[in-house]
Amino acid sequence: MRFHVSATAPAQAKADALVCAIVERPKTLSKVLAALDRALEGVIAAAVSSGELGGERNKTVTFHTGGRLPAAKLICVGLGPAEKVTLEHARQAAATAAKAARDQAAKTVAFVTETFGVARTKPADVVGALAEGVLLSQYRFDRFKKKEEGAKKLGEATLLVPAAALRAARAAASRAEIVSAAVADARDLVNLPGNEIWPETLARAAQEVARKRGLKCEVLHGKALETNKLAGVLAVGAGSTHTPRFIILEYRPSRSTQKPIVIIGKGVTFDSGGLSLKTGHNMDDMKCDMSGAAAVIHTMAVVAQIKPKFPVIALAPAVENMPSGTASRPGDVIRYASGQTAEIANTDAEGRVILADALLWAKRYEPAAVLDLATLTGACVVALGEHATGLFCTDRGLARRITEAGAATFERVWELPLWEEYERQIESDVADVKNVGGRPAGPITGALFLKKFTEGLSWAHLDIAGTAYIEKERAYVPKGGTGVGVRLLSHLIANWKSRPTKRVARSRR
Ligand code: BES
Ligand code: ZN
Ligand code: MN
To answer: What is the pTM of this model?
Structure first.
């Protein structure tokens, strides 16, 4: 889909569909809407007074313009009660209207962005949200389906803005384009079935991002995993003929002396449970178990384009968790690079086992912060459902930044505790820690296992088990892989007020 920002006046815009937003039961029409209403000889005002155009959230009403405007149709989309409109409502409304236009066989669509105004919000931020809503709403995963003749598809979307707002709007829209493309790429990786994506193909996806965006990519496998003592990756990957990889993607601005941010993603390309085999119930969903890796790999594409002043490093331990004669057994004990030992009491709690390697690895960068994203526990799905990612954090400042980024992007997080009282559940009789802690507080004991490997780090763990893969379509998120994390991490990194390292601070004094 081609995508533009333009200062064309709405009444002059040529498109199959012109889109305006309208608040719930408006007392008067906004200035732009009133002008369009005059051109349409009062049909909008009439529809408002009859109640047909009620402005209910995400409800669309279509008018044929009958040649009274250059646009063939006007689609009005509801924002809900005026005093409650948020950026997310605008994002959803744009997405809903874009889908309605597409379903009505429109090829070109133009959005009157002024009608989407949100109180106390910069117009450019509204434009950014609308661009995201439009772009993300058009995502489809149809590569394994027979090509449909004449499938409905938007060819071109234009955001109409006042001339004075053009510059800021273009910048916001181009950021949204970068981020939305990365979200779509992450969704693709998640939606690819387990027979299309293995550790080696996940690594290839990372190398492809590196090649396209000028990043450094290193992939460890075979002997290199052993020499680097990546014991968790080796143990979990031992059962599969598709051998494990440890993926490292680096963005390093030249001459930067600042500390990096490290983002880590769980990359289990398929989670059968291993010898602690899962039941057949929803096992097919376990192709989503590399959603964390997909998010960090494609966030790096965004990073490479927005070019922060500090380094950003993505780590993705990639394995296929399979049962076989070479697989790890429940009860096996492994020794990490740090010398710490872990009892693998249940081979289905594999995410934490491979993430521990990545957390230990992250320390070599002396990072400002480390975030890991993982579809870690079914219990997190039970606790928070599809609408919130579980957050665990050892640094109040970092937790605040993440919570803010979550709110701004609507990839919301909800914090759960890391209280030491829960640690008893993961005490092992034979090793320093056990990889399962029983049914109570499943997401917390999973996070506490990880915490054992984060000494000295400012660290956050995001359990995306509920948010990475959804059952019910939303305005701009289809069923299946959501790409969750890409928008949150991109926002966090773009707004990170970086601190210089101590050494630099001193030399400047
Ligand atoms: N990948 C799963 C968690 C998961 C479940 C993600 C549902 C997305 C949707 C993880 O590896 C797992 O199997 N966790 C176990 C942990 C248990 C054995 C302590 C679980 O949640 O049952
Ligand atoms: Zn898993
Ligand atoms: Mn598992």
So the answer is: 0.96
